[in-house]
């Protein structure tokens, strides 16, 4: 990939020469490949407990995820069960596999480290290793270059996999691994370098399927060890014992999900190997979890088996502001604040928000469905939470959304927390968001954010009960309004299970008290006219019902692109669109003052039928008054009377490449709009957003060039 403008893609480095010459940094695509989401919360890759790693290996890599600005495949491979993982490795059989930024952004948002892969294989790999390890200086140089790449692109380390003999090269290979580990720790504090069980200390390619004296020297100069898959149960304990008490969790027992000569058999039996690893008090590595997609297996069932034997200990979120729209990273259309802005299917893991637990804590229901769905209504992105069930008026369903550790305080030991969420309920259905808090003395409070208007505008919480050691507070919204909904949204919704004429309702609340920590976010479903008596009864019967739990998002199954929903008797229907928590002092700083928004690399093209197109790289300054936006939406107006604007896509970096946008026959100026989105979920009103205008050349101008095939028309190799 050279300096010529084209649709931004992620790509590997295939030769040591390209790695050495730094051609990657001169590519047009380099700046687009930088991840922008920092590792959230407390990284668990060094936690003193058995850890879980997932190694990507999906159909060779760089498929839909190579398109940094998103692909048009609304059902692309994705991963949502991040809370079970500590490390994610992006794998391919190229020399230097660089993780696409979308994977890094999604993983970091969930507190998961992301590693690239350095691999050499067979005869070609031996030739590369001869250059890599020709001298000690070479080994140090290449290791330093890999560390520099990781730091520049924002990922967290490397898997080193030498799948070829290295006879007579071992001394300098050890220099390479040691230098890579040291350089990564210097460039990216907290980073991880993992050695794969392949060559032995004598330079032979002999998989040991355990940690032993033949590969121990490589483990000693790296952070972790990833065993081959053909191990026996006793190997797990032997490996942990050899690693020692302080490093036994740095040993990852490999599990091939495809079941290729792997302990336990892989597939739906992966839990056999995981249980053996946990029993031995070592870690585990799942290779190719995309098996469920590649073989049309039940992804929910498979991850459910993993969750049963490998619980997580992560708290999400841990800081304010917090926003989730339940986006899984792909959709059938794109929505922003309840308004459909594009009807095209899409996938982009950078859009994935923090995934909820959806753990059902209390329910007497025989049939209840709480799922992530891509059917409207949707607040933003491409997903929402759909709740469908048969609920009597004396029943309720309580489920956990997030297990959190959000500290809310200010210098005066009192602060206001602004909470908003969007929901749509059908007929007699009721829904309430619930926050569990704990103050600095350990006293717990349960805040029920009800669908009832505040009776006293000067009071935020007007009903309070003490049940045991818990304070129960009923809060009422200070403001309620409909989310924006376009006619296109209603048309798209027709034929779904919900009334297509109704939009999401936005509820806003303010909580004011002394400093405290939010420890859990829950949802309550009921058909009762008044939720309060049921909730008080529930807490009297079981005060600990709001204790933290662990469960997985159950995303809808699909077949041939259509949602398959189990037929159940349902008198309860509701949709949850988003949740936002922010300190009342939080200010999005929306302003286009001094905002630099310009176009470069402008080119004009003419198609075979005389149609005309423009391509342009839009760039801007995303840091305004010490404030950094979370992402940017890009629109265009190609005709004076064009309403609504054309939605072009989303950018995480401070650039967006517009490829062959159709030009109006009237040759009117083209106006581009840049819409920032804050980390609290709010977007700037389009009427006040920065704009950039291009005058269209006269049809007879010499600037018009014959249109070339799109990069997407070619198979990426």
Automatic annotation (TrEMBL):
Domain Cytosolic endo-beta-N-acetylglucosaminidase C-terminal: 595-696
Broad class of the protein's primary localization: cytoplasm
EC number in record: 3.2.1.96
Pfam families: Glyco_hydro_85, Ig_ENGASE1_C
Subcellular location: Cytoplasm, Cytosol
Cytosolic endo-beta-N-acetylglucosaminidase TIM barrel domain: residues covered: 62-333
Catalysis performed (reactions): an N(4)-(oligosaccharide-(1->3)-[oligosaccharide-(1->6)]-beta-D-Man-(1->4)-beta-D-GlcNAc-(1->4)-alpha-D-GlcNAc)-L-asparaginyl-[protein] + H2O = an oligosaccharide-(1->3)-[oligosaccharide-(1->6)]-beta-D-Man-(1->4)-D-GlcNAc + N(4)-(N-acetyl-beta-D-glucosaminyl)-L-asparaginyl-[protein]
Gene Ontology biological process: N-glycan processing
Cytoplasm as UniProt keyword: yes
MF (Gene Ontology): mannosyl-glycoprotein endo-beta-N-acetylglucosaminidase activity
PANTHER family per record: CYTOSOLIC ENDO-BETA-N-ACETYLGLUCOSAMINIDASE (PTHR13246:SF1), ENDO BETA N-ACETYLGLUCOSAMINIDASE (PTHR13246)
Name by which UniProt lists this protein: mannosyl-glycoprotein endo-beta-N-acetylglucosaminidase
Organism: Marchantia polymorpha subsp. ruderalis
């Amino acid at each position: 990939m050279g300096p010529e403008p084209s649709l931004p893609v992620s790509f590997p480095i295939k030769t040591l020469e390209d790695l050495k010459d730094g051609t990657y940094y001169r590519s047009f695509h380099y700046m687009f490949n930088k991840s922008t989401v920092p590792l959230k919360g407390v990284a668990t890759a060094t936690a003193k407990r058995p850890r879980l790693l997932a190694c990507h290996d999906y159909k060779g890599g760089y498929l839909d995820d190579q398109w940094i600005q998103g692909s048009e495949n609304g059902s692309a491979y994705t991963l949502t069960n991040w809370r079970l993982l500590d490390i994610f490795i992006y794998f391919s059989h190229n020399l230097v596999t660089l993780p696409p930024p979308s994977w890094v952004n999604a993983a970091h948002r969930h507190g998961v480290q992301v590693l690239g892969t350095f691999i050499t294989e067979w005869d070609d790999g031996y030739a590369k290793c001869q250059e890599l390890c020709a001298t000690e200086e070479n080994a140090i140089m290449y290791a330093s270059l890999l560390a520099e790449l990781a730091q520049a692109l924002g990922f967290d380390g490397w898997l080193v996999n030498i799948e070829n003999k290295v006879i007579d090269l071992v001394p300098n290979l050890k220099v390479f691994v040691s230098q890579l580990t040291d350089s990564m720790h210097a460039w990216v504090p907290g980073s991880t370098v993992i050695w794969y069980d392949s060559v032995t200390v004598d330079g032979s390619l002999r998989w040991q399927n355990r940690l032993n004296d033949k590969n121990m020297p490589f483990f000693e100069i790296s952070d972790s060890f990833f065993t081959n898959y053909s191990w026996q149960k006793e190997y797990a304990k032997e490996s942990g014992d050899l690693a020692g008490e302080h490093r036994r969790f740095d040993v990852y027992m490999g599990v091939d999900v495809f079941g290729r000569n792997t302990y336990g058999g892989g597939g739906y039996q992966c839990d056999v190997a995981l249980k053996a690893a946990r029993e031995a008090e070592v870690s585990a590595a799942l290779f190719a979890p995309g098996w469920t997609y590649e073989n049309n297996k039940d992804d929910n069932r498979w991850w459910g088996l993993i969750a049963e034997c490998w619980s997580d200990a992560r708290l999400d979120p841990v800081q304010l502001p917090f926003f989730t729209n339940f986006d899984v990273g792909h959709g059938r259309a794109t929505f922003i604040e309840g308004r459909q802005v594009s009807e095209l299917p899409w996938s982009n893991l950078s859009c994935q928000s923090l995934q909820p637990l959806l753990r059902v804590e209390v329910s007497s229901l025989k049939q209840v469905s709480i799922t992530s769905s891509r059917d409207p209504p949707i607040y933003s992105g491409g997903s929402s939470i759909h709740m469908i069930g048969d609920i009597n008026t004396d029943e309720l369903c309580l489920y956990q959304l997030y297990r959190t550790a959000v500290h809310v305080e200010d210098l005066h030991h009192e602060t206001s927390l602004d909470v908003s969420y969007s929901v749509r309920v059908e007929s007699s259905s009721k829904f309430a968001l619930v926050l569990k808090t704990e103050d600095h003395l350990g006293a717990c409070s349960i805040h029920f954010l009800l669908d009832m208007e505040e009776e006293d505008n000067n009071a935020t919480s007007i009903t309070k009960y003490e049940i045991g050691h818990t304070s129960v507070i009923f809060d009422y919204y200070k403001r309620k309004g409909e989310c924006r909904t376009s006619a296109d949204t209603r048309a798209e919704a027709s034929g779904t299970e919900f009334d297509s004429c109704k939009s999401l309702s936005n509820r806003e609340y303010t909580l004011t008290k002394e400093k405290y920590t939010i420890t859990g976010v829950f949802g309550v479903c009921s058909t009762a006219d008044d939720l309060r008596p049921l909730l008080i009864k529930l807490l009297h019967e079981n005060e600990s019902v709001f204790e933290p739990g662990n469960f997985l998002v159950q995303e809808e199954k699909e077949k041939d692109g259509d949602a398959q929903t189990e037929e159940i008797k349902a008198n309860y229907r509701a949709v949850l669109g988003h949740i936002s928590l922010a300190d009342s002092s939080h200010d999005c700083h929306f302003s286009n003052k001094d905002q630099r928004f310009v176009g470069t690399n402008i080119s004009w093209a003419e198609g075979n039928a005389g149609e005309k197109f423009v391509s342009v790289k839009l760039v801007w300054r995303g840091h305004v008054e010490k404030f950094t936006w979370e992402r940017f939406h890009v629109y265009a107006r190609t005709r004076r009377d064009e309403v609504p604007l054309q939605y072009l896509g989303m950018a995480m970096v401070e650039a967006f490449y517009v490829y062959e946008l159709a030009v109006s026959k009237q040759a009117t100026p083209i106006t581009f709009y840049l819409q920032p989105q804050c980390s609290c979920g709010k977007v700037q009103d389009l009427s006040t957003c920065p704009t950039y205008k291009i005058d269209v050349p006269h049809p007879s101008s010499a600037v018009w060039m014959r249109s070339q095939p799109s990069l997407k028309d070619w198979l990426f190799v």
